[in-house]
Write a structure and sequence with these properties.
This protein is α/β, with parallel strands linked by helices and 140 residues long. The protein has one domain: Phosphotransferase system, mannose-type IIA component (Rossmann fold, 3-Layer(aba) Sandwich), CATH 3.40.50.510. Helices cover 45% and strands 16% of the residues. The chain has a 4-stranded parallel beta sheet with strand order 2-1-3-4, with helices on both faces.
């Protein structure tokens, strides 16, 4: 089984989960979220994930954090040595969609790289010229 955990500062992870629900319906229900708020510690969430990863070595945990180098991501890096934990940073809706839509498979290096590539390719500057090309039948 694959567990998907979105972890961020504030309510960002919850917002991404909500958007996933709008797009995918019930497929987003199993996505877990953690939002770091003032006065709280990311270490608390990491401890819970560590305990689950230790007790369920046959299950996979994909943790998607908001900012590389941020406090949330930095705390989760303590799990980087776990063979059943994958940590990603740079959370966006495209990345979350790729992971949730492919949740049934075991995420190996190729599947993770495909998800990251798809998320990167979704980041574009849209300007007047781009829109004119789209109106003529082109892609964004």
């Amino acid at each position: 089984m694959t567990h998907i955990i979105l972890a961020s500062h504030g309510n960002f992870a919850e917002g991404v989960k909500h958007a996933l629900g709008v797009i995918l319906g019930g497929a987003a229900d199993a996505v877990e979220t953690y939002g770091l708020h003032p006065g709280a510690s990311a270490a608390d969430c990491v401890l819970r994930v560590r305990e689950r990863a230790d007790s369920s070595p046959g299950e996979q945990f994909i943790v998607v954090t908001d900012i590389a180098g941020g406090s949330v991501c930095s705390e989760f890096l303590s799990l980087a040595g776990y063979p059943n934990v994958i940590i990603l940073s740079g959370m966006n809706l495209a990345l979350a969609l790729e992971i949730v839509m492919n949740k049934e498979e075991v995420f190996d290096e190729g599947a993770i790289e495909n998800a990251v590539t798809a998320a990167r390719e979704g980041i574009r500057r849209i300007d007047g010229e781009t829109l004119r090309g789209h109106e003529k039948g082109g892609d964004f």
